[in-house]
Amino acid sequence: MNKTFLLKTLSFFGLLGALSVLAQEPGPAEKIVYKKTEQGELALHIFYPAGHQKTDKRSVAVLFHGGGWNGGSPAMFYRQCEYLASRGIVAMSVEYRLANKHKTTPVECVKDAKSAIRWVRQNADQLGIDPDQLIAGGGSAGGHIAASTGTATSFEEETDDKSISYCPNALVLFNPVYDNSPKGYGYERVKAYWEKISPMHNLTQATPPTVVIFGTEDKHISVEMAEAYKRRMKALGVRSELHLYAGQKHGFYRYKMSPELFRETIGDVDMFLTSLGYLEPMKRKNGEVK
User: Fold this and answer.
1) What does UniProt give as the signal peptide span (predicted)?
2) Hey, which end of the chain has fewer CB within 10 Å, N or C?
């Protein structure tokens, strides 16, 4: 489907689902604790499709907010969750440990991300989801920990059930911090173990198909890094899409930054997930998408 055509029809027919009530801030249907740590409990903020039943077997999206491993909130991805739920996906924004609140390091962020995915798979029947159609995603540092779940980064919680895979079936990354080398982002924070936590340096043939949304004026991650990531994925025979948005800075995809760019970037995500079979194609009537 042509991207320009899709975006125009999305806008015209209001196919962004719950985005038809843009004046109202979205909120989750429920919050479920997935992990108890020494620093406190961590919850999933869950959005369900209309009419969802526990007997359903829907695709599921597990999203991680940004904030430099320091701060941020699950609310930062409520809009994306709302949209995905309107399209039939069970979507959730994840609480994970943060330096400002929990006095933790990026290692704990990665551990929590892997724990969250394992918990979701383990509780697939309770959630009404297909554990084999699990999408992980995130922005900035959240993009880093999402990418870490799809690569061979070595950190995981000792108490996790290792029989359950933490690797997602697809990755959706918004300006991700996926290079932690001396030339990348956050090196001073992770230099003692950067090779073990940098997704760029832990790609494998098992890394899932990935779509990356990226602004060319991002001051934290360079276009060169984004293109290098795509090349490494291609060399491994793994599908990797890179959508470059000219002139856009870090975090440009967020609704509060630009509703228009939010719609366009979520349109890229929609097409990617539809191509994987995780979303039903938008129906056509008289030649138009409905």
Assistant:
1) 1-23
2) C
User: H helices within the chain, ranges in order?
Assistant: 3-13, 78-86, 99-102, 106-122, 124-127, 141-149, 187-190, 194-197, 223-235, 259-276
Q: How many CB atoms lie within 10 A of CB 20?
A: 10
DSSP strand pairing (170-174 vs 129-139): parallel
| 3-33 pLDDT per residue, tens | 554 544 444 344 444 444 444 789 999 999 9
Q: b/e for 262-279, b at 16 or more Cβ within 10 A? A: bbbbbbbbbbbbbebebb
Give this prediction's pTM. Answer: 0.90
Q: Which residue shows structure tokens 């290098």?
A: 228
The strand pair at 40-47 and 90-94 is best described as antiparallel
> What proportion of the chain, given as a percentage, has pLDDT over 70?
89
Per the CB < 8 A criterion, the answer to whether 88 and 129 are in contact is no
Question: Which tokens go with 210?
Answer: 């990935």
Strand partners, 134: 60
Alpha-carbon span 278 to 62, nearest angstrom: 14
DSSP secondary structure of 151-167: TT-----TTS-TTS---
Q: Please report which confidence band the pLDDT of residue 70 belongs to, taking 50, 70 and 90 as the band edges.
A: very high
Report the C-alpha gap between 122 and 106 in whole angstroms. 25
Amino acid at 181: S
Q: What are the φ and ψ backbone dihedral angles of 2, each rounded to 5 degrees?
A: -65, 130
What structural domains and CATH numbers belong to the chain? 3-279 (3.40.50.1820)
Q: What is the CA radius of gyration of the chain?
A: 18
Token pair, residue 149, equals 């779940």
What does the pLDDT average to over 134-157?
97
Report the alpha-carbon distance of residue 90 to residue 127 in Å, rounded.
8
